[in-house]
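lol forgot to send this yesterday, sorry. struct tokens for the thing we talked abt
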């Protein structure tokens, strides 16, 4: 059974990371290739991914990159401690989507956050990854990135190559976001590297 692990953050906090072990190095490679001005995360959960992304950015000297992370539930207390030491993380306890996940709530700060000048990375790891990608992608600027967790390209690929080998949760396949992908001029980025840790990754052309 492939599942979560305890992530030891650079500031000393140990948190539950609902990720494939080794994902830190893949994010590190992304940040070596691409410099982002801000990261929007949907689905803070136990803040494992939040802290990994912050640590990877800091390791490469990208301390000024802002992180805005959302979750409708109370998240790990360690995140509060971490934000006291690093003012570039903001956590908002809210759901930016309608209850049926068919729209984004009006006056949502996340949309303006994406549209700011500079390069934005959007991480979709909330309750409905396909909905999050389909709703947030239209706000991307050329050069922005969007990613989705618990991903395998097809159900068949998940069953044969991912389940019990890499990761045991499938909440996103390419078919669920293919229309959005092509309509918004997305292209895969580090496809194999991120697929190896159960993430979809694309950039807007």
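and heres what i got for the seq, position by position
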């Amino acid at each position: 059974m492939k599942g979560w692990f305890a992530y030891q953050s650079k500031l000393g906090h140990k948190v539950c990371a609902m990720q494939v072990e080794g994902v830190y190095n893949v994010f590190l490679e992304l940040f070596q290739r691409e410099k982002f001005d801000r990261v929007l995360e949907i689905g803070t959960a136990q803040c494992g991914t939040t802290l990994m992304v912050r640590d990877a950015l800091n390791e490469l000297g990208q301390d000024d990159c802002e992180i805005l992370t959302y979750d409708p539930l109370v998240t790990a207390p360690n995140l509060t401690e971490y934000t006291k030491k690093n003012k570039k993380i903001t956590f908002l306890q809210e759901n930016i989507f309608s209850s049926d996940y068919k729209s984004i709530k009006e006056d949502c700060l996340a949309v303006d956050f994406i549209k700011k000048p500079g390069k934005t990375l959007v991480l979709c790891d909330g309750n409905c990854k396909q909905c999050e990608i389909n709703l947030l992608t239209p706000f991307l600027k050329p050069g922005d990135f969007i990613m989705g967790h618990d991903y395998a390209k097809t159900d068949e690929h998940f069953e044969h190559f991912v389940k019990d080998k890499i990761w045991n949760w499938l909440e996103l396949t390419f078919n669920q976001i293919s229309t959005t992908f092509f309509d918004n001029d997305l292209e895969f980025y580090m496809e194999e590297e991120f697929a190896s840790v159960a993430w979809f990754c694309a950039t807007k052309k």
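The chain has one domain: 5-204. anyway ping me if u want another try
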